[in-house]
Specification:
The complex is a heterodimer of chains A (about 450) and B (about 240). Chain A has helices at about 1-20, 25-35, 55-70, 85-95, 115-120, 140, 145-150, 170, 265-280, 285-295, 325-335, 360-365, 385-390, 405-415, 430-435; strands at about 45-50, 75, 105-110, 125-130, 160-165, 180-185, 210-220, 220-225, 240-245, 250-255, 255-260, 305-310, 310-320, 340-345, 375-380, 400-405, 420-425, 440. Chain A is an alpha/beta fold. Chain A is globular, with a radius of gyration of 22 Å. Chain B has a six-stranded mixed sheet with strand order 2-1-3-4-14-13, with helices on one face. In chain B, strands 6-5-7-10 form a four-stranded mixed sheet, covered by helices on one side. A four-stranded antiparallel sheet of chain B has the order 9-8-11-12. Chain B is globular, with a radius of gyration of 17 Å. Classes of the chains: A alpha/beta (about 450), B alpha/beta (about 240). The complex binds zinc ion (ZN).
Chain lengths: ~450, ~240
């Protein structure tokens, strides 16, 4: 009876919240206050797929939901990205019957890395996809090993892990777990034989601290590695990108499924592969997945086209305090051919207050932009000095670098000069400061 | 004039962009006409510490700190005599804990420190202390800005390097932060402290060039460093006053 009322209250609050446009954490938060053990009382679907990791979880979850729904499955998922226990509670209670039974075929959860242990103490995912662990928001996350430690408490014996084999720290979760499935990329034309980041988080073995060696890298410390001391190595993969042609914008999975890409960024390829892996495990066939995900454009606003004067622009949303996400955007720009300019905006690192913590700017390899087709690099926002100082330590010719602190002035300046392509690299928290001043497509 | 720099544990202890401290220091030394030679190493084996004018160590994970402690202890006597002889050293983040007498880890394991000063550190995996800092020190007029990101508390420092106006001190409730002994500076202010505090870089350069009678520091205006410092200080002051 108690569960009935708590579910009812949560549904009502969710409804009211939807009407007044409030976030989706509050109903779950109140439900948990009223009945802390409520999640343990719900009859959940036979497939509970959780996705976590530093980067790509929102996009991966969106893709999984899209594929599953496209193939006739009903999916309950936290599309608003409320990925802590309160948001997950809202999701579950608002999509179950008043009798406490979930109607969907599949429960799909994006989970925050640090708080997954609390969410999954009330129920355990049947499948747990882990994308990567990078230096990410270290102001709250300390460092990747610390997040690893927190995340390890969210893994239970009755959960099957689906891990990124190319990330050594993520792969460590599979140690001693026989049923673990791995996904990864074979050596591709884009593979390189060095770490192309500023720092190297793949130097030491996450198991024994021995020296690691790589056969190849896809980017940063993601690639094919082995420890020279204990033998820990990249695991063989069950789900694999076997070929990629960035010019033709296609990838091939498991040697037989060709998937056209809406966007050739490396992280998009990993997200597609992770989604493919999860959907295969959920019983969807490879060709059906390929049909569903080919040319898929994410709806979560990570990539937005816009016009500014004679410039055709693309917003490549990255994450402040996350150097790998910046590196990926910069590498994408480097991989393009047409002459272009780039605007980097760092205006508010935290939504709540000003912080002086800018060490992450030094972890970004801005030298990716040192290529002839990048003509101007505009720097803007409150942190324009930190950006300009960071760029002064790159090999990029200084005449290309144009710091204009005020975002409006910067936009006006670009509008009145040139017609080259324009890429904007900034964070969710800052992207509207540009998008509100241009014509979005 | 030439300055020899040792960036110790440059891969092992590099969580927060600390290499930038060396980059900025060398840029300014060069501007002052001082030549720089930089050696980077993840071990202190293979060279004499006394060959160097400046030794720098940044912050790392708890596991990396353990590795660094085991390595550094082998050069304990050498490091202590360099310190006493006036070698300039900067230890930022949790590397500064290595200079005390011991570090007790979360699981009870004890790491032996260098013992430059008799202080000790307790590491916790549960609680992290993170946040912006504004602080002052006795020998430099301008306030410092920075950020602390640590999972430890340090006890027993009687003469700290900084007095905190904002941010966590050596331990909970302690307004003192870091320590100085001779020309060895230890602080939990992470990341590029020299990038963020141009006045500290200048002070370090003055220490490094003190032995050369012909040298005199020429002020060079660095608008981006100055701008970054001033905006950070202004905004953090606003936060303190609200
Ligand atoms: Zn190993």
């Amino acid at each position: 009876m108690r569960a009935f009322f708590v579910i009812l209250i949560c549904k009502l609050l969710k409804f009211i919240g939807g009407v007044i446009g409030r976030g989706s954490s509050l109903p779950g938060q109140i439900a948990l206050k009223l009945y802390p053990g409520i999640l343990g009382k719900i009859k959940l679907p036979s497939y509970i797929i959780a996705v976590t990791g530093s980067n790509g979880k929102t996009s991966t979850v969106e893709m999984i939901a899209h594929i599953l729904q496209n193939n006739g499955k009903t999916v309950a998922w936290n599309r608003e990205g409320s990925n802590q226990i309160e948001g997950v509670t809202t999701l579950i209670l608002s999509s179950c019957t008043l009798g406490g039974r979930m109607k969907s075929d599949i429960l799909l959860i994006e989970s925050d890395e640090r708080y997954a242990r609390y969410t999954f103490s009330y129920f355990h995912p049947t499948h747990y996809v882990m994308t990567n662990l990078y230096r990410d928001q270290l102001t709250r996350n300390g460092h990747p090993q610390w997040v690893y430690e927190a995340l390890s408490h969210s893994i239970h014996n009755d959960t099957q892990l689906i891990l990124n084999a190319d990330d050594p720290l993520i792969s460590k979760f599979g140690q001693g777990r026989e049923d673990t499935l791995y996904f990864g990329l074979d050596k591709l034309k884009t593979s390189i034989n060095y770490n192309d980041g500023v720092y190297d988080d793949g130097i030491y073995c996450p198991l024994c601290f021995g020296k690691m060696e790589y056969d190849y890298y896809h980017y940063n410390h993601i690639g094919s590695y082995h420890c020279t001391a204990c033998g820990f190595h990249r695991h063989d993969t069950s789900f694999t990108v076997t070929d990629a042609d960035m010019e033709k914008k296609i990838i091939q999975i498991d040697g037989k499924y060709t998937i056209p890409l809406a966007f050739t960024g490396m992280y998009n390829i990993y997200n597609i592969l992770a989604a493919y892996s999860a959907c295969r495990v959920a019983g969807i066939s490879g060709d059906k997945i390929a049909d569903s995900i080919g040319n898929y454009m994410l709806k979560n606003g990570r990539i937005v086209g816009f016009n500014l004067g004679d410039h055709e622009g693309v917003m490549l949303t990255s994450k402040h305090e996350n150097s790998v996400s910046y590196d990926q955007s910069l590498k994408y720009i480097r991989s393009t051919k047409d002459r272009c300019s780039v605007i980097v905006i760092v205006d508010a690192v935290s939504r709540k207050y000003f912080t002086g913590e800018t060490s992450w700017l030094w972890d970004i390899n801005f030298d990716h932009l040192d290529c002839p087709h990048v003509e101007n690099i505009y720097l803007s926002g409150t942190y324009v000095n930190d950006l300009a100082l960071r760029f002064s330590f790159t090999d990029i010719p200084s005449e290309k670098i144009k710091p204009i602190a005020d975002i409006q002035q910067c936009v006006d300046y670009i509008k009145s000069s040139g017609n080259e392509k324009l890429y904007c690299v900034t964070c969710f928290s800052d992207k509207d400061k540009l998008l509100s001043r241009v014509e979005t497509l | 004039m030439k300055v020899k720099i040792l960036h110790l544990y440059n891969n092992l202890m590099n969580l927060y962009g600390e290499y930038a401290n060396i980059s900025i220091l060398c840029r300014h030394l060069s501007e002052q006409g001082v030549e720089c030679e930089i050696i980077k190493s993840d071990s202190c084996e293979g060279f004499e510490l006394s060959d160097f004018d400046f030794i720098y160590v940044g912050s790392g994970t708890e596991a990396a700190q353990e590795r660094a402690a085991a390595d550094l202890i082998r050069k304990k006597d050498e490091l202590l005599s360099c310190a006493a002889a006036g070698t300039v050293m900067l230890f930022t983040g949790n590397s500064f804990e290595l200079l005390g007498s011991k570090i007790t880890e979360d699981d009870g394991k004890v790491l032996e420190g260098i013992g430059l000063k008799d202080f000790e550190t307790k590491v916790s995996y549960k609680k992290r202390y993170t946040g912006d800092c504004v602080c002052s020190c006795k020998f430099i007029e301008k306030p410092f800005v920075g950020f602390i990101n640590k999972g430890s508390q340090t006890f027993g420092i009687t003469e700290p390097l900084f007095q905190m106006q904002m941010g966590e001190g050596n331990s909970e409730g302690d307004k003192g932060e870091g320590f100085r002994q001779y020309n060895v500076f230890g602080t939990h202010l992470i990341g590029p402290i020299l990038v963020k505090n141009p006045h500290f870089t200048k002070y370090i350069i003055e220490l490094l060039t003190k032995g050369d009678k012909h040298f005199s520091y020429t002020d060079k205006f660095s608008p981006y460093e100055q701008g970054s410092y001033e905006i950070t200080l202004r905004e953090l002051n606003k936060r303190m006053n609200t």
